[in-house]
Amino acid sequence: MTAAQTTTAPRPSAVDVPTSAATARRRRAEAVAGTWIPLAFVVLGAGLRIRQYVFRRSLWNDEAALALNIVQRGFVDLLRPLRFQQGAPIGFLWVERAAVDVLGKNEYALRLFPLLAGIAGLVLFALIARRVLSPWATPFAVLLFAVLQPLVYYSTEVKQYGVDVTAALLIVYMTLRLLDRPLTRRRALVWGGVGGATLFVSHPAALVLGASGLALGLTLARRHERQQLEQLAWGVGVFAAAFIVEYVVSLRNLSANQVLAAYWHDGYPPQPFHLDKTLAWIGGLPGRLVPDPLAVKHSVALYVLAAVGLAGLAWRRPTVALLLAGIVGAALCAAFVRAYPVQWRLALYLVPFVLLAAAAAIDVVIHAPLPLRLLAIVPAAALVFVAVTPTSDALSAIGRPYTRTELRPVLEKLAARRHPGDLIYVHWTGLLLFDYYSPLLHLRRDGTLGFAPRAACDDGASLARLENHRVWLVFAFPPGYDSADSAGATLAHMDRLGTRLFQARARGHAEVDLYALSNRVTGPAPAPPHPGLCINPTSP
Fold first, then answer.
1. Rounded distance between C-alpha atoms, residue 534 and residue 484, angstroms
2. Which domain holds residue 437?
3. Cα(372)–Cα(369) distance, rounded to whole angstroms?
4. Boundary residue ending a domain (344, 371, 399)
5. Euclidean distance between CA atoms 41 and 26, whole angstroms
6. Nearest 5°: phi and psi at 252?
7. Lowest-confidence range among 31-35, 90-94, 402-406, 517-521?
């Protein structure tokens, strides 16, 4: 045996051993921070969403308006413009209609699709955060996404806004995956096909797809990948064809709705164009981005962190920064041409990307020279500070879930106590909500009531219909309703006409009141110094 053969491998030096141990500890810490802690937050977020779903809160006025379209129409009829000034993607409407056909006309069926989309959005956001952020920044982003009140609430709302978030995240996730390997025609077609499918369940998915395609194209052009650009064109063609179909069957009618355009006018820049007014509108965008009720108490800190994080991504991950900035840019462009507003719940799909950019502020400091890395605690502390209120609200919602207008519980009490011959009059603000629940509870309204700023509403012929009857008054005010036409004024008027026998109230200012009215109703009375009661019988 030669000397070379008998030579043993060099033993690690005293310096190498602790270095290897430190590397192993660092990797374990990164695995905990980047994988296990975000997974725990995903489970927390899913639990919050399921808790809200199981609570089965009552529909509120806006949900009822869309739900009436869903339950009263078939699949073909849903292609026509919706009643009650509602708009939703045709795919979303069809999924909702299918759920009602299978599971019945109840809140669980109507909210199942948004719930599943909300949980899927949690998983997608965590996967994207792991790709975009360091293991140390990922938990902060996932925590905020898991507990942010609008994201939890709209996961159980009979509206498409929560689905918008998941559709946007799915498109971004697939776009990031396209950058992992060379772009083939098959991968481009899958990207375009899945993206095109999201157009049928989410209107702003078109904006996210456009921004994603532009980011991919610019990245491939910068790399001089001409062949891959040609493959990308196939995917772009697929989702462009899907957009044309969606526009013909749904968007065309919705874009012509001037009532909705007027309702969301604050989401568009003021016209005619003036630079100072436009800059003021852009400056006010952060306040309109997070939907009502306000999700974070310290949104200024969140947006400052997002600006810092986006600048850092532009330096380290220019493609990711281009993608995120492109999504926001597409939203602004759509608002400028009055195609899609940037306001409140319609802009909910932008919130995840603000959270990603804000968490990236931690990475800006972590990737700085060694002496500055300790300053990473500053953006981390700021994100914790921002997350305190949403986390506290989310944990409180476990015992007291979010509600709007809880009409169903009081209507159930009405149905249980109603006598044959009782009349039911519904305040005009709750008509749609009552009309949704009344067939389910075998109720029928005999008329409507309101309170107008003139005593002339006290019409003797209308009031005569109530003589010697027990009359139920139903109130269901939408959130934020502020008018002289209040339940208190109406009930004070009714107290002079009869005797109150029963009252039931629920959260969100929903209530029913039972009155026994005698023949005093149409008797002589002095002119009241307050507005008059308006009672309108329902036509047979």
1. 13
2. 407-537
3. 6
4. 399
5. 22
6. -60, -45
7. 517-521
